[in-house]
Specification:
The chain is α/β, with parallel strands linked by helices. The protein has one domain (11-477): TIM Barrel (Alpha-Beta Barrel). It contains 16 helices and 14 strands. Helix 4 (79-93) packs parallel to helix 6.
């Protein structure tokens, strides 16, 4: 066998989010979350990625049932009742780690209570015990688009500084409860999404905002402070734990070698890495301070905020990587839909069924660039291919396209490690089919495990192993040496 390029103890596994797999939205004392209010819109009727609620009127209409009753993230794929079966399948693949999130409103149904919901805490005890039975290390995201809806309605989410206190209380409950079971933590999932989708990222309804950009960055400051306080609490409660941040990485290439395009790519990179600059380096980068000054944005900070950010940086940096982007110095350049929100098409790359351009080599590029910049361990906690899967007449699912996608990306991770980058692990997104975050579709499948359910909730929920299931088992067994 070819010698592995991956270090001993590399954390192979898969990743999901509570709001996309658990279901049981009204069981176990759970309150409503922000994603519980996102309805399914068929692809042919969809004008954009449908995951952000814009106004109070829209939210009230959703609560009143005026926009239909198909809320896919409320049903998930019933992990809440089937977690033992699912974890056994993860163990069969040989998972070393499982990245999952805890549903904030399952622990604090409204978010601002003083005491947690014991039934919710007990559920995650059972999940962690099941993982540890198979020696699978939990990697837990504290907030993965799971803000309690009450905090949106009462406080407009992270716009209100009081939410810091609620988040820190919630985090401390988790650290104290699970200190013997969880050693790897993440604070906020894809924290930069707040700048693109304020409701999902920060729990803010934009019709309540006098100045949307000002409020977005103020809310982000509150999240940065909350993250630093959570890092401190984690280190105090679980000294041997590691806690990281998480970014939706958007590697940007200049469209041409024209200096304007090169500068545009640099600025896109600075905007994307601003979030990790604060959480890893512990201070606001000068590029964003200049941006704030130029655009009249004034971040209200309390005495001690800057010292807190500097004193409690994260231990490692994790990120999602699905595609690269193209930047142009021409502001009138036409944008193509598909690449997450929109972007300039890269003529050298193929695209997925959903228009996400496939760029394995970009993963090596971003690993090397980020390690050069930060010199902290990196963790790829989301990478995968959303595609239509077909169940053959014999019951098999031949997803060779997913194997090709992941094999090419993992190969580039190995190349980055060979170049000197410290990478902790790789958790493929959607190790089991789940509800898509961006479109609420079930038909956009990512998993190694097929779940019999359609976009409207019809199906038996039976689990089936895809061809990629057996392939990934071989990858893990060989510690990444065998990618064929």
């Amino acid at each position: 066998m070819t010698k592995s390029r991956f270090p001993k103890g590399f954390l192979w596994g898969g990743a999901t989010a509570a709001n996309q797999v658990e279901g049981a939205f009204d069981q176990g004392g759970k309150g409503l979350s922000i994603f519980d209010m996102v309805t399914f819109v068929p692809k042919e009727e969809r004008k954009q990625i449908e995951m952000d609620v814009k106004s109070e009127a829209e939210l009230e209409a959703l609560l009143a049932g005026e926009k239909g009753d198909n809320f896919p993230k409320r049903r998930g794929v019933d992990f809440y009742h089937r977690y033992k079966e699912d974890i056994a399948l993860f163990a069969e693949m040989g998972f070393k780690t499982y990245r999952m999130s805890i549903s904030w409103p399952r622990i604090f149904p409204n978010g601002d209570e003083l005491e947690p919901n014991e039934e919710g805490l007990a559920f995650y005890d059972r999940v962690f015990d099941e993982l540890l039975k198979y020696n699978i290390e939990p990697l837990v995201t504290i907030s993965h688009y799971e803000m309690p809806l009450h905090l949106v309605r009462e406080y407009n989410g992270w716009e209100d500084r009081r939410v810091i206190e609620f988040f820190v209380r919630y985090s401390k409950v988790l650290f104290d409860r699970y200190k013997e079971k969880v050693k790897y933590w993440l604070t906020f999932n894809e924290i930069n999404v707040s700048s693109l989708a304020p409701y999902i990222g920060s729990g803010m309804l934009v019709d309540r905002l006098a100045n949307q950009e000002q409020s977005i960055y103020q809310a982000l400051h509150h999240q940065f402070v909350a993250s630093a306080l959570a890092v401190k609490a984690c280190h105090d409660s679980i000294p041997d734990a590691q806690i990281g941040c998480m970014l939706a990485r958007m590697e940007a290439y200049p469209e041409t070698c024209h200096p304007d395009d090169v500068l545009a790519a640099l600025e896109a990179d600075q905007r994307n890495l601003f979030f990790t600059d604060v959480q890893v380096r512990g201070q606001y980068p000068t590029s964003m301070l200049r941006y704030f000054a130029k655009n009249g944005i004034e971040i209200k900070k309390l005495p001690g905020d800057e010292e807190l950010l500097a004193a409690h940086p994260v231990d490692f940096l994790s990120f999602s990587y699905y595609m690269s982007m193209v930047a142009s110095g021409n502001p009138d350049k036409a944008k193509d839909k598909g690449n997450f929100f929109s972007g300039i098409k890269n003529p050298y790359l193929e695209a997925s069924d959903w228009g996400w351009q496939i760029d394995p080599k970009g993963l090596q590029t971003t690993l090397r660039k980020m390690y050069d910049r930060y010199q902290v361990p990196l963790f790829i906690v989301e990478n995968g291919l959303g595609a239509y899967d077909k169940v053959e007449s014999d019951g098999s699912i031949q997803d060779d396209y997913r194997i090709a996608y992941l094999s090419a990306h993992i190969d580039q991770v190995g190349a980055a490690i060979e170049s000197g980058v410290e990478v902790l692990g790789f958790t493929s997104w959607g190790c089991i089919d789940l509800i898509s975050a961006s479109t609420s579709e079930m038909s956009k499948r990512y998993g190694f495990i097929y779940v019999d359910q359609d976009d409207y909730g019809n199906g038996t929920l039976e689990r089936k192993r895809k061809a990629s299931f057996h392939w990934y088992k071989k990858v893990i067994e060989s510690n990444g040496a065998d990618l064929t």
